[in-house]
Design goal:
This protein has 363 residues and is mostly helical. The protein folds into three domains: 70 residues; 85 residues, no CATH class; 172 residues, Leucine-rich Repeat Variant (Alpha Horseshoe). It is built from 21 helices and two strands. A two-stranded antiparallel ribbon has the order 1-2. β1 and β2 form a beta hairpin. α4 packs across α5, α7 packs antiparallel against α8 and α8 packs parallel to α10. It is elongated and about 75 Å long. The C terminus is likely disordered. One of its GO terms (molecular function) is translation elongation factor binding. Belongs to the HGH1 family. This is Protein HGH1 homolog.
């Protein structure tokens, strides 16, 4: 005989909307404490929840939250991510601005992006979203998500799309994803990665800063794109990667001479990013950009060493300090025609390390 909880799960597909709503409300807590109850009968409750995402708003929101909680399970993720109709439902709801629970939808899409099948987002074509004006004029799904992300809804604080940054981070782990972020798009004549750089420093959302930092780092695994990424006429990502590493320390005239303009006149209340993991991600991005001679020369001319030095001095986190040390060891070496050799002095250190050691794609 089924238990009361098992009977409650059966009500997810009841014909009466009030009963479905009560079932969703009462089952919400069990999606974290007893998730196995939703895996009965070959994931039938999960299939019911997929349909409820299109139900009335109170039902749909609870169904989405339940699926967010369940989508840490590989079988559930694959069931959701491989369903083209369900993916279209999510995209439609996210890109149409009338939805009031876009955050939860973006959380769910971010979880689904862990599935290999969701790399089809990169090339997926769909209709231009409804809206007056529409949030995007592109028929490419990832363009539409990007436009939602960069057009923050100031009059609806609950709609911030921050978790889309985690979707971008996962897509940027793929070669096709990195190519997308580095390719000028025909519909707006903009290279997508340049839309993200402004969110690296002092944005209110930790999620957004973290996801964007990871996306930038993953894109830097494309060594052939380093010149474009560093060029002032290209993506010009260097100041955006350095700003989160900079604090309010007073620098000498010698330190600031030749430094990037954005780093020279920082306000006295400038704060370094408070998350050590984000700092490490940016430091590893810089390290990736030193794999070519041109990248190292650009960073030396930009006088980034004082920023890294002060980050090392003022952040009491071992991982951050180790990442600073590795970067400084590369930048303070002497370049020679017959190879690279270490410069003398305490600042450069004495132990040579592989520049890519321990650097892995994130998310």
């Amino acid at each position: 005989m089924p238990s009361e909880l098992e009977e409650l799960v059966e009500f997810l597909h009841h014909g009466n909307s009030q009963i479905r709503q009560i079932a969703c409300e009462n089952l919400l807590g069990y999606s974290t404490t007893n998730p196995d109850i939703f895996k009965r009968h070959q994931l039938l409750p999960v299939r019911d929840l997929k349909l409820l995402v299109r139900d009335y708003a109170p039902i749909a929101k609870n169904a989405i939250i339940i699926l967010v909680n369940l989508s840490h399970d590989e079988n559930v993720v694959n069931t959701l991510a491989e369903d083209d109709a369900f993916l279209e439902t999510l995209l439609k709801k996210i890109t149409e601005t009338k939805e009031s629970f876009s955050n939860e939808l973006c959380m769910l899409l971010a979880n689904l992006a862990k599935s290999p099948s969701l790399d089809r987002l990169i090339t997926l074509a769909r209709s231009i979203p409804l809206g007056n004006p529409p949030v995007s004029s592109s028929t490419n799904a990832v363009d539409q998500l990007m436009d939602c992300f960069v057009k923050e809804i100031t009059n609806k604080p609950a709609k911030d799309y921050d978790y889309l940054s985690y979707v971008f981070a996962d897509l940027s782990r793929l070669e096709a994803g990195r190519k997308y972020f580095l390719t000028r798009q025909a519909y707006d004549d903009i290279v997508p990665i340049t839309k993200l750089t402004v969110f690296t420093d002092e944005h209110r959302s930790h999620v957004r800063r973290k996801g964007v930092a990871s996306t930038l780092k993953n894109v830097c695994f494309e060594a052939s794109a380093h010149q474009f990424l560093l060029s002032e006429s290209g993506a010009n990502i260097l100041p955006y990667v350095l700003l989160p590493l900079a604090g309010n320390e007073e620098l000498s005239d010698e330190d600031t001479e030749g430094m990037l303009p954005d780093l020279q006149l920082l306000p006295p209340d400038k704060e370094r990013d408070s998350d050590p993991d984000i700092l490490v991600t940016h430091l590893e991005t810089l390290l990736l950009l030193t794999t070519g001679r041109e990248g190292r020369d650009i960073m030396r001319r930009a006088k980034i060493y004082p920023i890294i030095r002060d980050c090392h001095l003022h952040v009491e986190d071992e991982n951050v300090r180790e990442a600073c040390d590795r970067l400084v060891q590369v930048l303070l070496r002497d370049e020679a025609d017959d190879g690279v050799k270490e410069a003398a002095g305490d600042q450069a250190g004495t132990q040579e390390e592989d520049e890519d050691e321990k650097i892995v794609e994130v998310f």
